[in-house]
Design goal:
The protein has 400 residues and is of the alpha/beta class. It is built from 17 helices and twelve strands. It folds into two domains: 132 residues, Aspartate Aminotransferase, domain 1 (Alpha-Beta Complex), CATH 3.90.1150.10; 259 residues, Aspartate Aminotransferase, domain 2. The longest helix is centred in the C-terminal third of the chain and has 23 residues.
């Protein structure tokens, strides 16, 4: 099946692609649907973008398909370009004041660290980072690290569900419930979650949740969503004020202008834009069903588990998480001291392996993603490259 699936993607066949986590990869049939939407837009842009002549209904259909996948009411989520955009909408909308605290962790995505830093500078709020220690091996330890950092000034709890630099699967449900019980807004970065882990957003109960569809759900780039609990939707201000915004949107339950709620209209009806990536989300979901993606994902997890064990034995470094606390198809593997940027360049130049290598909190990390198009030979190529390129200090662990 793996070889067949490789042919379903548009990836360069001469490159071992182990970086699905950064931008995803879109299957050929899904990309064809995406291009068909783009062609329809170009053939009659006025008719296409007129909310009353198709656009609003098409977006609603895509939201309904997506909502069923992530356990949400379609009236509570809206299409955005990427999770970072969705979270920026939230950060700019929250009425923070000087002295308010934004509680987060030391494992968050750098772009969102900057988002909250900008919000703090604009409002006078301050950021508090709780240290989540490695290895992550218990829900209780995670909960206690965050609960201990809550103060009477905490107004926002911001967490990744799957962390970008360390590929941890944070057990967020209990701390989300605790924060909400204390009147703290809960904001979850789900950039890596949709299509990667089962989601039930209504059950999770986070106030604000943003997720990407272009990563593990394999929609085209530019497909993501923002989910907001119904009572809080009036708080949301779009980054761009355009046709869907109304002066009354924060003062009552009046319907929007285009058959949706004001929350949806204000974010989706923003003049000239290409919505084709979001409209292709149902095709991505259909592709996953047609290829029994639960089985594909299970094979990927088994390969990644074995790779993590091999690399940890090679380097002498322990895994960052116990079983159940690592992203199923993505692992952050610590390697010995080296020029980490040069390691990434050499893996690509000499071994044709595309994989992110970076420095995080003083640790040198190779972050590996395994998706359905990957094979065991791909992972063997990475190990071969690491054996050849890691510094001499790693030689004893390599058995040399």
């Amino acid at each position: 099946m793996a070889g067949d699936l490789r042919g379903e993607f548009l990836l360069d066949p001469d490159v071992v692609f182990l970086n699905h986590g950064s931008f995803g990869a879109c299957p050929r049939p899904v990309f064809a649907v995406y291009q068909d939407w783009q062609l329809r837009l170009e053939r009659q842009p006025v008719a296409f973008l007129d909310p009353l002549r198709g656009y609003a209904a098409w977006m609603r259909q895509a939201r309904e398909a997506l909502a069923a996948e992530v356990g949400a009411d379609p009236a509570d989520l809206v299409g955005v370009t990427n999770a970072t955009q969705g979270l920026n909408i939230v950060a700019r909308s929250l009425p923070l004041a000087p002295g308010d605290e934004i509680l987060t962790t030391d494992h968050e995505y750098a772009a969102l660290d900057k988002t909250w830093a900008a919000a703090a500078r604009r409002t006078g709020a301050r950021i508090v980072r709780a240290a989540v220690r490695l290895p992550l091996d218990s829900e209780a330890a995670f909960f206690e690290a965050l609960a201990a950092a809550i103060t009477p000034r905490t107004r926002v709890l911001f967490l990744s569900q799957i962390t970008s630099p360390t590929a941890l699967l944070f057990p967020v449900a209990r701390i989300v419930a605790e924060a909400r019980a204390r009147g703290i807004w809960t904001v979850i970065d789900g950039a890596h979650a949709p299509g990667h882990i089962p989601l039930d957003l209504d059950a999770l109960g986070a106030d604000f949740y943003a997720g990407n569809c272009h990563k593990w759900m394999m929609a085209p780039k530019g497909a993501a969503f923002l989910h907001v609990r119904r009572p809080l939707q009036r708080m949301i201000d779009p980054l761009v004020i355009s046709h869907g915004w109304t002066e009354t949107m924060h003062s009552g339950d009046e319907p929007g202008q285009f058959g949706n709620t004001p929350f949806i209209d204000s974010l989706e009806m923003q003049g000239t834009r290409d919505p084709s990536a979001f409209l292709a989300v149902p095709a991505a979901l259909a592709f996953r069903r047609a290829h029994r993606w639960d089985e594909v994902a299970a094979r990927c997890r088994r390969m990644l588990d074995a790779l993590e064990a091999r690399v940890c034995a090679m380097t002498g470094h322990a895994p960052f998480a116990a079983p159940g606390f690592r992203a199923p198809q993505m692992a952050a593997l610590q390697v010995p001291d080296c020029d980490i940027a040069q390691l990434q360049r050499e893996l690509l130049a000499r071994f044709a392996v595309e994989v992110p290598c970076f420095l995080w909190n003083g640790r040198r990390i190779v972050r590996v993603s395994v998706q359905g198009y990957n094979t065991q030979a791909d992972l063997d190529r990475l190990v071969e490259g690491l054996e050849a390129l890691l510094p001499a200090a790693a030689a004893p662990a390599l058995g040399r």
